[in-house]
Design a protein that fits this description.
Blueprint (H helix, E strand, L loop, with lengths): L8 E2 H7 L3 E4 L8 E2 L4 E2 L2 H4 L11 E4 L1 H8 L3 H13 L5 E3 L7 H10 L3 E3 L4 H16 L2 E5 L1 E5 L2 E6 L6 H10 L3 E4 L2 E8 L2 E5 L7 E4 L3 E4 H5 L7 E3 L2 E7 L14 E5 L2 E10 L5 H16 L4 H14 L4
Helix pairs in contact: 4-5, 7-9
């Protein structure tokens, strides 16, 4: 398992994705990078306060800023934008289709800065852009395992090589579930408590099965059998069956696994010949889904059992 934390995304990628109209593009626009998912509304800066200013953030102007700038004379506006554009800002986006002040464009030309305009409402645009930046800049790692989606739950199968992760996944695909990644799973943390997984581009939708070789799941089973990414909801640890080991038969123990600081529920499935693991995986997925919806079968059963003891029925 390895991960680093300094990711970036091209400003151009974000501008294209959000349909921003360029008013002025810098010479290095094609290579300009965004490295933080924080954005800034420069209201304070336009009034002259630069004590806490990060030019690496995408700058977003809305009605508040425009209305304030309207109260200034053209000369004051020129000064205001000169002071602002002297900073190496990565880009400025003007929302609500508010016509750009000529002084803004003059200074963008003078200091070679990127300026865009959008019809979007400022708050909506800000929320959208932060979501999309978070996805591009999310902390990530690559882990050894298989990611499948079973009844809408993302199951990350982990365990030693040769335990049968790929074979179990294939059985699940045959039963109508979907493969996201086999062998290597790229895990991204997209919010405080949510992880998504994808396959490295090169091996997407391929599976390697001992004795058979490499197969292309999409070609063999069709588009419905694969998915480019999925949330990771449950970690399923597969381990060889050990005689005499006390397994959690009721499912009352709450095991967890941690990835990128996010704790996920985990179940340990002992593997032995003749055990239909795909059915067990389906049950694990349904059970996890029920737990998320507030129903825990094991706890309900234990409670009924205790009630029966209280009533003297057992």
């Amino acid at each position: 398992m390895h991960h680093q934390n300094n990711y970036s995304v091209k400003l151009k990628t974000i501008a294209d994705e959000h349909g921003l109209t360029p008013l002025h593009l810098s010479k290095d626009y094609e290579t300009a990078m965004l490295t933080t998912s924080d954005v800034n509304r420069p209201a304070m800066q336009l009034t002259g306060f630069y004590n806490y200013f990060d030019p690496n953030r995408l700058q977003i102007m809305g009605r508040v800023e425009s209305t304030y700038l309207d109260t200034l004379s053209s000369g004051q506006r020129l000064e205001t934008f000169e002071r602002f554009m002297q900073y190496d800002i990565v880009g400025l986006v003007i929302c609500h289709n508010v016509p750009a002040f000529p002084e803004c464009i003059d200074m963008a030309c003078k200091y070679d800065r990127n300026v865009f305009i959008t019809t979007e409402d400022t708050s909506e645009f800000q929320a959208d852009i932060i979501t999309s930046l978070r996805k591009y800049l999310a902390p990530r790692l690559t882990t050894h395992g298989v990611l499948v989606e079973v009844y809408g739950e993302g199951l990350l199968l982990i365990g030693d090589s040769g335990i049968g992760k790929s074979e179990t996944a294939l059985e699940l695909i045959k039963r109508g579930h979907r493969l996201i990644a086999d062998d290597a799973v790229e895990v991204k943390r997209i919010s405080r408590d949510a992880l998504i997984g994808t396959a490295p581009e090169l091996i997407r939708y391929y599976m390697e099965l001992r004795g058979i070789g490499v197969i292309n799941v999409r070609h063999l089973y069709g588009m419905g059998a694969v998915k480019p990414e999925s949330n990771i909801d449950l970690v399923v640890k597969m381990e060889p069956w050990e005689e005499g080991k006390a397994y959690d038969r009721l499912g009352l123990e709450n095991e967890t696994a941690s990835f990128l600081g996010v704790n996920l529920p985990q179940v340990t499935i002992p593997v032995r010949p003749g055990r239909n693991l795909a059915v067990i995986m389906e049950l694990a997925a349904m059970n996890n889904r029920q737990k998320k919806m507030g129903y825990n079968a094991a706890e309900a059963l234990a409670a009924e059992h205790d009630m029966a003891i209280d009533r003297g029925l057992i």
